[in-house]
Amino acid sequence: MFPKGDVLTVGVIQAKGSPDATRDYLRRWVERLGLQHDEVERSSGHLTQWRSHDSPLRRGSVIVAGDAAGLLDPWSREGISYALRSGTWAGEAVARVSVARGNDGHGALDSYVDRVSTELMAEVSAGLRLLRIFEAHPALVHFFLGFSGLGSRLFVGVCNGTTRLSTILASRAMRAALAVLRL
Ligand SMILES: Cc1cc2nc3c(=O)[nH]c(=O)nc-3n(C[C@H](O)[C@H](O)[C@H](O)COP(=O)(O)OP(=O)(O)OC[C@H]3O[C@@H](n4cnc5c(N)ncnc54)[C@H](O)[C@@H]3O)c2cc1C
């Protein structure tokens, strides 16, 4: 739920292909927030998609960034920071091409692809792993994030960019906990 001036945006994330279940999920969420009697100004749905390792980032002199490149966290569907980071790097690469000659230009575009693959794909993959864990054990993830101090701190850290989901999932403690839970 996001406050926006004098209106609220209220939404849920659900896997594609279950429209009735999605509407029911949204209805229950709205009720839980106590907003069921408020006027609905606009109702809409959006498809969000994320890249796989071999989704193209460049073809010839064209590079893609943000949503066009499928850069978002599959678990939270957070895409703004991915769009800002990849968009900045894409702009820098294109600027280098404009001052380079010959193959140097191609190198700049390749370096964009490498940077996205190295720095952002680890986060997309970690988000997908968390999504699969969440789908299998939603109550466990809710409990960890909402009722354990560690989970809350990690969640806030990921949201404000001071820690990365990939770092958390790769930590020895988390790997041990997931192994014990067979996740
Ligand atoms: C309902 C919903 C809620 C979301 N909530 C969050 C959130 O809370 N936090 C978060 O981080 N992310 C959220 N996201 C994801 C986030 O909005 C996107 O990942 C992010 O906006 C991607 O930025 P972008 O610049 O790549 O694409 P966009 O923001 O889609 O920008 C692309 C722009 O290009 C324009 N355009 C398209 N085609 C053309 C054309 N041919 N010529 C000129 N212009 C064109 C479009 O009109 C648009 O303005 C949400 C997404 C949805 C759908």
Task: Give a structural overview.
- The protein has two domains: 1-47, no CATH class; 58-180, no CATH class.
- It has seven helices and four strands, in the order ββαββαααααα.
- It has helices at 19-32, 80-99, 103-136, 138-147, 149-159, 165-170, 172-180; strands at 2-4, 7-9, 58-59, 62-63.
- Strands 1-2 form a two-stranded antiparallel ribbon. It has a two-stranded antiparallel ribbon with strand order 3-4.
- The structure holds flavin-adenine dinucleotide.
- Residues 11, 46, 48, 66-68, 72, 77-80, 83 line the site of flavin-adenine dinucleotide.
- Flavin-adenine dinucleotide is lined by residues 11, 46, 48, 66-68, 72, 77-80, 83.
Question: What are the defining features of this structure?
Answer:
183 residues, 2 domains, mainly alpha, globular, two-stranded antiparallel sheet
Q: Average pLDDT, to the nearest integer?
A: 92
Bound molecules: flavin-adenine dinucleotide
The computed structural class is: mainly alpha
The value of Rg in angstroms is 20 Å
Give the number of DSSP strands.
4
Q: Globular, elongated, flat, extended or rod-shaped: what is the shape?
A: globular
| Biggest sheet, spatial arrangement of strands | 1-2
Query: Which blocks of ≥5 consecutive residues have pLDDT under 50?
Result: none
Euclidean distance between termini CA atoms: 30 Å
Topology of helices and strands:
Layout: E1 2-4, E2 7-9, H1 19-32, E3 58-59, E4 62-63, H2 80-99, H3 103-136, H4 138-147, H5 149-159, H6 165-170, H7 172-180
Antiparallel strand pairs: 1-2, 3-4
Bound molecules: flavin-adenine dinucleotide.
